[in-house]
DNA sequence: GGTGAAATCTACCTAGG
DNA sequence: CCTAGGTAGATTTCACC
């Protein structure tokens, strides 16, 4: 499926999505045509799902970043989907995962400040009927951010 | 700093970094020149930190995704920086944060399979001299992935 | 806000294994 | 027959007006 050149191409595009076929060709010792063709192939086959701008949360006024672990009390399907809808709706929740084990959720949230985070916790998440308990932690520092996926 | 149009432009570019100035102009009711100019300004002022390709981890053979909470035993600066170096080095660790409270780490990891994750835990992270205890959870499902940052 | 030159992408064409 | 390299038309960007 993927050879070493594909892997390097994917790594390069993860660091900078605006690399031209010419630049990619220089890095990979390929002609611009071949570099562009590989990129097209990797897009068509679904290895590349899209291209996204990376923003600076601080500059947007989002000074506080945290993780919230949510333990559900009732695990019925209608309660879960109601909770999932809430997760979809709230813009402060930028990523959300369901975890093995106690079948709870992990939420990655960005807020303007601590009080906004507390409001989110106590007036949105905790009051939700499916939620039994939440546990939140604030991010102090981000050491690594979406490093290129290993292959 | 930012008006409503800037916010919408940032949201659009987070979903698709390859939108042209012409397309952005249509969305925002701006001329292509003005749309492109706004994008340049937001890049220059640091609101946009870069553009990244989004990959499909499954297609790359990374079937297992998890979070690892690391509690440090010794909180000395030399131990912490040694741990930070290890985090930088391991490609399976794609994101890493330091958290308030017990001053520990949260790691987001991608592995080929469960045994690779266990190897990472028991032969790389746990043996590290600064580490006292780890707690890992596997991701079952990803409901939301890097949704546009709220503003 | 618009215009034009320079650069880029994409599809097509040609050559070589 | 399939893959690599090159070329032309359309599109996009960016500096200038």
From TrEMBL, chains A, B:
Cellular compartments per GO CC: cytosol
Keyword check for DNA-binding: yes
Domain of life: Bacteria
SMART domains named in the record: HTH_ASNC
UniProt GO BP: response to amino acid
GO MF, one example: sequence-specific DNA binding
Domain HTH asnC-type: 2-63
Cited InterPro entries: AsnC-type_HTH_dom (IPR000485), Dimeric_a/b-barrel (IPR011008), Tscrpt_reg_AsnC-like (IPR019888), Tscrpt_reg_AsnC/Lrp_C (IPR019887), WH-like_DNA-bd_sf (IPR036388), WH_DNA-bd_sf (IPR036390)
Name of the molecule in the record: Leucine-responsive regulatory protein
Name of the gene encoding the protein in the UniProt record: lrp_1
């Amino acid at each position: 499926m993927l050879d070493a050149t594909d892997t390097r191409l994917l790594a390069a595009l993860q660091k900078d999505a605006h690399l031209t076929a010419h630049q990619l060709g220089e890095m990979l010792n390929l002609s611009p045509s071949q570099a562009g063709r590989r990129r097209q192939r990797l897009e068509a086959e679904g290895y590349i799902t899209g291209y996204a701008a990376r923003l600076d949360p601080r500059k947007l006024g989002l000074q506080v970043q945290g993780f919230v672990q949510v333990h559900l009390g009732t695990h019925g399907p209608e309660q879960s989907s109601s909770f999932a809808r809430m997760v979809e709706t709230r813009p402060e929740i930028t990523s959300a995962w369901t975890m093995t084990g106690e079948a709870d959720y992990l939420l990655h949230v960005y807020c303007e400040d601590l009080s906004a985070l507390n409001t989110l916790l106590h007036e949105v998440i905790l009051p939700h009927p499916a939620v039994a308990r939440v546990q939140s932690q604030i991010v102090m520092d981000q050491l690594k951010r979406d490093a290129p996926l290993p292959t």
